[in-house]
Amino acid sequence: MKGPVGQGTPLPSFLVGKRDGATALLFLKDLQGKLTGNGRIQLTTDGLSAYIGAVEETFGADVDYAQLVKLYQGDNPGPGRYSPPRVSEVVSTTINGNPDPRFVCTSYVERQNLTMRMQIRRFTRLTNAFSKKLENLKAALALHFCWYNFVRIHRSLRVTPAMEAGVTDRVWGLEELL
């Protein structure tokens, strides 16, 4: 993969877990294994402090790493109404190396999270279609990402993300996933 991972590019790694140091380390080790041979990478995370140690342990000094923290206004939309808060400030901090400011961004991951919430009923807000077992949630996510990367033709690419990345030379059928 060249350039930033974004919409229409394969998602190289995902992990279901808590937002803690152990999960961050497992996730980054998996990600590193999938990026082997791609040279020095640039990585941006949100402000979770656990990422700092996990990135250091996984990549050492061989990464250009920045954290991006979004600060939100405390608007009160009123009783009975939900509205996401507005971003009031974005703070970018270089943690290691020399990350290119043009690519310090969490928007691609945030867009992938939105895609998941829109396409996987379990993640729809205010739903009763939740997973009662963690294994069912993991299976649903694995199936979604396989479909997203290998089966679904993306309008902007006119091929699947896996085809665009050179991972496969054809659109997979659902029977190949199962």
Q: Report the structural category.
A: alpha+beta
Proportion of residues in helical segments: 25-40%
Oligomeric state of the chains present here: single chain
Order of helices and strands: HEHEEHHHH
- For the biggest β-sheet, the strand order reads 1-2-3
Strand content: 5-15%
Shape: globular
Number of β-strand runs:
3
Mean pLDDT: 86
Radius of gyration over C-alpha positions, nearest whole angstrom: 18 Å
Tally of contiguous helical segments:
6
Task: State the separation between the terminal residues, measured CA to CA.
Answer: 26 Å
Low-confidence stretches: none
Description:
By secondary structure, this protein is α+β, with helices and mostly antiparallel strands. The model has no long low-confidence stretch (mean pLDDT 86). It is globular, with a radius of gyration of 18 Å. The protein has a domain at 21-127. The protein contains 6 helices and 3 strands. Strands 1-2-3 form a 3-stranded mixed β-sheet, covered by helices on one side. Strand 1, helix 2 and strand 2 (63-72) form a beta-alpha-beta unit.
Keywords:
6 helices; 178 residues; globular; single chain; alpha+beta; three-stranded mixed β-sheet; 3 strands
Give me a quick take on this structure.
The protein is of the alpha+beta class and 178 residues long.
Write the layout of secondary structure elements.
Blueprint: H1 21-34, E1 41-45, H2 50-59, E2 63-72, E3 87-96, H3 107-119, H4 134-151, H5 161-164, H6 174-177
Parallel strand pairs: 1-2
Antiparallel strand pairs: 2-3
Helix pairs in contact: 1-2
